């Protein structure tokens, strides 16, 4: 009895040991309210701290509701003219998806029978009920106006996808979980010369690595632009921020929730096509064409109009982002046989991929990277108002092909080179150890014959200099390869 009294009433098992339906509904409601509080508390705090706020608490709550809806990708109208506002603050969107994913996974992982409409479906229904209430609150006259049917549909679709993903992850976790079906079976259906055996995991890993590299490239560009604006740009961003403490905090918070958008715009800039800040504008390494832009700290980081010049160096960032995917695919293409041969094993397994199969795997990863980058760029853009500011962000049909092209350009030769080096590890260390023995006189503890000093003295000075340079290069190569082997756990004396 004491144990039952110590548990929350909604956690009490039903007659069949299941979880009651109201508990799952309230889990969805609680998830939505937590996300709404993350937006509403700062907005209400700024409203209290602003001495000249004249919209009342209703205006502040409508603003919080509009931002919460925008975080789900729902369109909102702004002002009396009903200007469209569709730029999604991706940080709020990621927070909403993560909360729904965790809530659905937590509910789906509980054992025992549940009502037919319970579990993740009830979590989704509770979340959508809060969304409908927020939409009703934001309809009517005001600075920000919700559109009832589109907003509810968009929030419901996003919540459904996140909830389904969380429930699926819970079903495939645990000791008695069903076996997953093989992913990306299309690669296994290709003809033998074009089939990368077991290459789905390597392709997935390379796509994630390429996406992480491009995100890092965008973050670097945003940071460099901020430093340049503070150092040499006349402090345009700080001039926008100098409007009192409440305005400063508000703009900083708005810039924080839009920071992922800026990073994705920076990645599109590094890829080459760039992005738009209004119709008829382009911000790219090759040149910038701008018109009047709204006063906002992030817009103050935009480069000046004119040709790109030294900004073309940003095109090197996608090259660096393709190095890690090339290494991952090249090592997977070498197969377990090369690794076993390097360690002295028998080299069993499926063996290395053919050259054509390696190229197919790289091209498949490049295609998936292009699709992911295009989708992310599209989600990061939108409309800030009507007319000229109705188009912001990367262009879908330029950014995706640029990402796929950069990936293929770097990863195809890189993967083939890594595959070649991994398939012939036995010959390279021997040649390097011989070169190291000629210079140092020792290799693996065995004495090696010293080079003939009289012959070196009799040679012309140019020949002696060339020979010293050759030996120095061979020595550096041998030491570098030995360091790579030690880092990989395959150094001398290791089994």
How does this model look, in words?
With about 500 residues, the chain is mostly helical. About 60% of the residues lie in helices and about 5% in strands. It has 17 helices and ten strands. The chain has helices spanning about 1-5, 20-50, 55-70, 90-110, 120-140, 150-170, 200-230, 235-240, 245-255, 260-270, 315-320, 325-340, 355-380, 395-425, 425-440, 455-460, 460-485; strands at about 75-80, 85, 145, 275, 280-285, 285-290, 305, 390-395, 440-445, 445. Strands 2-1-3 form a three-stranded antiparallel β-sheet. It is globular. The protein starts with a helix and ends in an 8-residue tail after the last helix.
List the helices and strands and how they pair.
Elements: H1 2-5, H2 21-49, H3 56-71, E1 76-78, E2 83-85, H4 90-108, H5 120-138, E3 144-146, H6 148-171, H7 200-231, H8 236-241, H9 245-257, H10 259-271, E4 275-277, E5 282-284, E6 287-289, E7 306-307, H11 316-321, H12 323-342, H13 355-380, E8 392-394, H14 396-423, H15 427-440, E9 442-443, E10 446-447, H16 453-458, H17 461-487
Antiparallel strand pairs: 1-2, 1-3, 4-8, 5-6, 6-7, 9-10
- Radius of gyration over all CA atoms, rounded: 30 Å
- The multimeric state of the shown protein is single chain
Basic shape: globular
Q: Provide the β-strand percentage band.
A: 5-15%
Tally of individual helices: 17
Helix and strand run: HHHEEHHEHHHHHEEEEHHHEHHEEHH
Reported for the largest beta sheet, the result is: 3 strands, antiparallel
> N- to C-terminal separation?
61 Å
Physical arrangement of strands within the biggest beta sheet: 2-1-3
Fraction of helical residues: 55-70%
Give the number of DSSP strands. 10
Low-confidence stretches: 1-17, 337-349, 427-451
Mean of residue pLDDT values? 78
Structural class: mainly alpha
